[in-house]
Amino acid sequence: MFKTDTGEILDLVDRDDKVIGQKKRSEIYAENLSNFRVINVFVVNKEEKIWIPRRSPDKRMFPLCLDMSVGGHVGTGETYEEAFRRETMEELGVNIDDYAWKEIGKLTPHQDGISAFSRVYQISMEKTPNYNEQDFTEYFWLTPREFFRKLKAGDKAKEDLPKIIERFYGTN
After folding, report:
1. DSSP reduced 3-state for 60
2. How many C-beta neighbours within 10 Å does residue 10 have?
3. In this predicted model, what pLDDT tens digit does every residue of 105-126 receive, in sequence order?
4. Could you give the 3-state DSSP secondary structure of residue 2?
């Protein structure tokens, strides 16, 4: 991933997810753009429970909110799969080659109402990942129903999380 002294550089894409330029991550968020790329990953066990972590309180965006098992930006010149591999190692200490995984979908802001172009992956894993404690403060193994109950009870989640869980795992 390419970084300057002033921050991470991300690719900008058109409606067909083709690269049309680059911009600093800070500028993308300041301009409220949605034409950049991210990956979202869900760790799922045999009971079909999803490993849902809570973001640390010092996160700039969505502090203390429930989050995807792994989420991250696709850097300039990086493929979705390369970002999936890198972010999963950074956030969970997991080498994806050691587990069964698959891409479960592609989402876009204009078709799916999410914040960026996204590829969604699933990793099959029974144990709790050795997560980065600078990223997350706690975690839960939840069914989709249990997740939505937490939200209804007042828990907060990263903006796209409920949309993505409902789309790929339902509400039950």
Report:
1. coil
2. 26
3. 999 999 999 999 999 999 999 9
4. coil
